Amino acid sequence: MKQPVRRRQPSQARARTTQLLIFETAARILEEEGLERLNTNRLAERSGFSVGTIYQYFANKQAIVQALMRHEQEKMLAEIRKSLMTGAIEATPMDASPRVRAVVRAILGAFGGRQRARKILIERALQLGQHRSLEHPLATLTALLTSGSVASDQGGAFTLTEIDAFVLTQAVAGAIRAALARDRRLLKQIAFEDALVGLIDGFPWNRSASSKASPSRSSA
C-alpha cells in the first residue's frame, strides 16, 4: 500500500507573507501618524486585511508593537552578520574599511530607515521596562565579535575580548539613541554615518590579543 504523499502546506508561506505585510503597514503608521494612531482598525484600513485577520496573528496593539520590534532587530542583525562574516566587500575610494561602512549602513538603515518609528519602538520598550529586548541585538553582536568569525578587510579574522566588544557596541548604540532623542534627522546625515565609521574604524582592534592576557586591575 502506497504511503500518502506529504505535501507542503502553502498556508505557512501565506501566513508569513501576511505577517510581513502587517509589519510593513504598522511601521508606516508609526512613521507617518505616530503610536496613538496604531490600532487594529487603522491597521486593517491601511493594510487591506480585515480586523479579524489581524487578530489571528496578534492579540492586541502591544503584541503588534513587540513583534515589530523583534522583526526589525532580526533583520538588522542579519544584515550585520552578512557584512561581518562574508568575504571581500567592494571598497570605495574613501573607505579603508568598507566592511565597517557596510555595518554602519545596516544599523542606520534598520527599521526601513524610518527613524521616527524606530524612536517610538525604543521609547515604548523603555516605558514598559523591556530593557532586555533592546539589549538583545547588542548581546548578539558582542558574541559575534568575540567568536573569531568576523572577517577582516585585509584577510583573516578579528577577535575582540568580551569587554572590548561590549564597549564598542554600547558606544555605537548610545550614539544612535542620543541622536534619536535629540534630533532623529541626524541619522540620515552622511556626516553622522562618517562619524560612526570613524568611531568603529578607530577602535583598537589590535589590542584584543594582548588585553586577554592583561591582569585585572584591583582596587587599592
Describe what this molecule looks like in 3D.
The chain is an all-alpha fold and 220 residues long. It folds into two domains: 48 residues, Orthogonal Bundle (Arc Repressor Mutant, subunit A), CATH 1.10.10.60; 141 residues, Tetracycline Repressor, domain 2. It is 65% helix and 2% strand. The protein has ten helices and two strands, in the order αααααααββααα. A two-stranded antiparallel sheet has the order 1-2. Strand 1 and strand 2 form a beta hairpin. Helix 1 packs across helix 2. The chain is elongated. 21% of the residues are buried. The C terminus is likely disordered.
Task: List its salient traits.
Arc Repressor Mutant, subunit A; 65% helix; 220 residues; 10 helices; 2 strands; two-stranded antiparallel ribbon; mainly alpha; Tetracycline Repressor, domain 2; 2 domains
How are the secondary structure elements laid out?
Layout: H1 10-33, H2 40-47, H3 51-57, H4 61-85, H5 98-108, H6 115-127, H7 131-145, E1 150-151, E2 157-158, H8 162-182, H9 190-201, H10 208-213
Give a nutshell description of this structure.
With 220 residues, the protein is mostly helical. The chain is built from 10 helices and 2 strands. It starts with 9 loop residues before the first helix and ends in a 7-residue tail after the last helix.
Assembly status = single chain
| CATH class identity of the largest domain | Mainly Alpha
Mean pLDDT: 83
At CATH level 3, the topology of the largest domain is Tetracycline Repressor, domain 2
End-to-end separation in angstroms reads: 81 Å
Q: Structurally, how many domains make up the residues?
A: 2
Separate helix tally: 10
Which structural class do the helices and strands define? Answer: mainly alpha
Low-confidence parts lasting 5 or more residues at pLDDT below 50?
5-10, 208-220
The gross shape turns out to be: elongated
Major beta sheet, specifics?
A: 2 strands, antiparallel
Strand content: under 5%
Percent helix among the residues? 55-70%
What is the number of beta strands? 2
Q: State the CATH architecture of the largest domain.
A: Orthogonal Bundle
Helix-strand string: HHHHHHHEEHHH
Q: Compute the gyration radius: what is it?
A: 21 Å
**Strand order, sheet with most strands:** 1-2
